[in-house]
């Protein structure tokens, strides 16, 4: 049964459901302010959700902060390659702000590991290429095998096909004709930004850096499509994922506490980003560039050898 839904409030796109126990403002129409703030409160209260979070441009940030939202992450020049973006959150249950995972330790370990590793070649016979609607059954099956739960219904073939029809571009790595790994690029052409997401790798192919290959392939395609900034929301406790981001040059933008229901649990997420106006670089972590949440710009991401990759 599908319990996560995407709806419109005014002209804004909202996702909500019990898996992540939250309301997510995926795309805000600034003209909906300030009234949408009451609508979000009403929705969360009605469904009993304990968190509301939103991706908003700098020009729309303050009305949220005035209502008690806090900035959890920042992405410089997220919108149209010009205006900074913010991930702002309202915690309706104080317990949801608590996560004692040593995130600084994970990030430091990722920086060290990324400096000591090189890009590995694809497995023999491996091909990295765009996926087509004909691949939807295989993609959904792979997602079902990898994820026990997921915040979006990518485990359903119909949903994969529908998102393809609405501009989401999937990419995969085939080995011997079998799809070994998959990812997607969710574009917002009007804002010239893209989320690199929905990575999954078959267990027997983990540890080969396939997600890094997918990311580089997607970045090339997204540059050609006119996207100016790429970002991702990655599992904060997964060292391999953070290593891949660091190695490829993504910058750390902040941490979303207890944000996403995945694989049967609630997890905190790191936001990573890079400008697509520059070619890929080799590394990037907090402390290597500008201060504060908006550390640097870069690119990357990888397979998780035990649990699957990540998500929003």
Overview of this protein structure:
25% of the residues lie in helices and 34% in strands. With 312 residues, it is of the alpha+beta class. It has 2 domains: 5-96, Aminopeptidase (3-Layer(aba) Sandwich), CATH 3.40.630; 103-275, Aminopeptidase. The strands form 2 sheets. It has a 7-stranded mixed beta sheet. Helix 3 (103-115) crosses helix 7 (239-248).
Jot down its keywords.
single chain; 312 residues; alpha+beta; Aminopeptidase; 2 domains; 6-stranded mixed β-sheet; disordered C terminus
Beta-strand portion reads 25-35%
Please, what is the CATH homologous superfamily of the largest domain?
A: Gcn5-related N-acetyltransferase (GNAT)
Order of helices and strands: EEEHEHEEHEHHEEEHEHEE
* Large-scale geometry: globular
Please give the count of helices: 7
Assigned CATH class of the largest domain: Alpha Beta
- Second CATH tier, the architecture of the largest domain: 3-Layer(aba) Sandwich
> Looking at CATH, which topology of the largest domain would you report?
Aminopeptidase
> What is the helix fraction of residues, given as a range?
10-25%
Largest sheet: 7 strands, mixed
Strands across the major sheet, in which order?
7-8-9-10-11-13-12
How confident is the prediction overall: mean pLDDT?
87
Distance between the termini: 20 Å
Number of strands: 13
Overall SS class: alpha+beta
Rounded to an integer in angstroms, the radius of gyration calculated over CA atoms is 18 Å
Unreliable spans: 282-312
Short description:
The protein is of the alpha+beta class. The chain has helices at 35-47, 61-66, 103-115, 136-146, 157-165, 210-224, 239-248; strands at residues 5-9, 12-17, 22-27, 51-57, 70-79, 83-91, 126-130, 169-175, 178-188, 193-201, 229-235, 251-262, 265-275. It has 2 domains: 5-96, Aminopeptidase; 103-275, 3-Layer(aba) Sandwich (Aminopeptidase).
């Amino acid at each position: 049964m599908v319990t996560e839904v995407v709806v419109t409030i005014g002209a804004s796109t909202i996702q909500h459901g019990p898996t992540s126990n939250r309301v997510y403002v995926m795309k805000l129409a600034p003209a909906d302010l300030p009234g949408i703030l009451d609508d979000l409160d009403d929705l969360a209260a009605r469904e009993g959700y304990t968190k509301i979070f939103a991706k908003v441009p700098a020009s729309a940030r303050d009305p949220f902060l005035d209502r008690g939202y806090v900035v959890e992450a920042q992405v410089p020049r997220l919108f149209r390659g010009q205006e900074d973006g913010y991930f702002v959150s309202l915690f309706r249950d104080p317990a949801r702000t608590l996560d004692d995972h040593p995130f600084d330790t994970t990030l430091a370990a990722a920086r060290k590991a990324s400096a000591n590793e090189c890009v590995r070649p694809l497995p023999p016979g491996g091909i990295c290429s765009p996926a087509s609607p004909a691949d939807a059954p295989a993609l959904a099956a792979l997602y079902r095998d990898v994820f026990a739960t997921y915040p979006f219904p990518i485990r359903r073939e119909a949903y994969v096909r529908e998102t393809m029809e609405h501009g989401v571009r999937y990419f995969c790595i085939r080995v011997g004709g079998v799809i070994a790994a998959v990812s997607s690029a969710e574009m917002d052409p009007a804002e010239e930004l893209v989320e690199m997401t929905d990575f999954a790798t078959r267990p027997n192919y983990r540890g080969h850096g396939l997600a890094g290959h997918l990311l580089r392939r997607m970045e090339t395609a997204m540059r050609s499509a006119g996207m100016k900034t790429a970002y991702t929301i990655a599992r904060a406790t997964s060292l391999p994922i953070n290593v891949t981001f660091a190695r490829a040059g993504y910058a750390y933008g902040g941490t979303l506490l207890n944000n996403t229901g995945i694989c049967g649990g609630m997890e905190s997420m790191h936001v990573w980003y890079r400008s697509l106006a520059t070619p890929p670089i080799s590394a990037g972590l907090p402390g290597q560039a500008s201060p504060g949440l908006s550390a640097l710009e870069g690119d990357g991401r990888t397979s998780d050898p035990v649990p699957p990759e990540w998500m929003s």
